[in-house]
Amino acid sequence: MLSPYLEVPAHETMATAASAPPPDAARSQAEEAATADVVVFGSAVVDLVFRPDSGLPAPGMTVLSRTYETHPGGKGANQALAAHRAGAQTSFYAAVGRDAFADLALSNLTAEGVDVSGVRRDAHAQTACACVCVSPTTGENMIVVGNGANETARATQIHGGCTTCKMLVMQSEVPLEENERAAMHARSLAQEVQTLWNAAPAPTPQTPVATLTSLLLLSDHLVVNEHEAVALYNLVLRNRVHDAPPPESWANDVLERAGDDAAPENGAPPRLAIAKLYSQLAVNGQAEFAAFSLARRFGCIVCVTLGSGGASVYTPAVRNRTEGFHRDCYEAARPAPAPKRMHADPPNVGRNAIVDTVGAGDAFVGAYAAALSLGTRGSDALRIAVCAGTRACLARGAQASPTREDLLPHLDKVRVIVDTKLAEACAETL
């Protein structure tokens, strides 16, 4: 089922930000927006990047960086560019200021032909800016964002652009209540628009639980990293419903119950594949438990990214679009049957090849959304996303996502394992 992805996309994705616009870039922006596969509603930011030789600062420390760099960024802009490069016709909706940073924030998007006609310029707000500190030895990063105009982004901006799109992508760098309104609008349309929420940055105890709950119930896909998965679980499920908090022995209990019944998708020796799958589960037990619980309770497909460990996807037995799935289903004493799980390992590029991890998550989300919007089956969309996230680490900057042409030769290096019994074992431990 990679065939939809293998077809040459109409807009011929660009190889670099400096490339000339594609031949059809002269079309009106209104026409571009009307034909989008993916609509991204989110943030636009200018990143100020520092690489201190002594490593990342601890609280109270001052460290020196010999130079600094400026790059366009923001999770929304990064994901829109990643979706476009991965082959989807993409429209971006956001808010920037009327200042020197505004054009820089949108520069890669406009250079490569992403529709930005829905970006609003606010004379009373500053374009968002981020301070990004990157370790030159490990590639790890610390980020603080001054959110500025992102706080003024409004869901009404997307109303015209969602009429024919296949996927709405959201993050948490714009007001959550606007994400909620955008998702409600997408669900109200006559054609089925899939909704994908990347719940990043992670919610805090101050985040309204009612809004988080509503967004989970309005999302077809949830993408989170380990910290975000656990934070969401703790806020919306732990101590609120029947699910118990994840015990320390949960992963071992699951593994004992699962036995040997797991099916590697691409012919790897079963026991080797199973050992890898379960060792990954043991390492990331709490995050995987959180993803399992969120998928089961809220009826959305939950993808949890695990850094160098790849990613796992939990597909619920009952989707929240299903007739009869009510808003209070997640509070039932006996939730829906256990979701199914698959896991993808990243391709091996060598630790010394990793330059910068700051854009990996957004490259993953954009490529995942693009692949799904083009009709690619879930396991192949996961393969494409994991490959994109890995290859984004080979270059600097938050918008280092690979093109479709760069991804294709490396997809067969990503192993996807579809588990046939782990979900049942998970259910038995609750």
TrEMBL record:
Statement: the UniProt record of this protein carries the keyword Kinase: yes
GO molecular function: kinase activity
Keyword presence, Transferase: yes
Record keywords: Kinase, Transferase
InterPro entries recorded: Carboh/pur_kinase_PfkB_CS, PfkB_dom, Ribo/fructo_kinase, Ribokinase-like
UniProt family annotation: Belongs to the carbohydrate kinase PfkB family.
Protein name: Carbohydrate kinase PfkB domain-containing protein
Species this protein is from: Pycnococcus provasolii
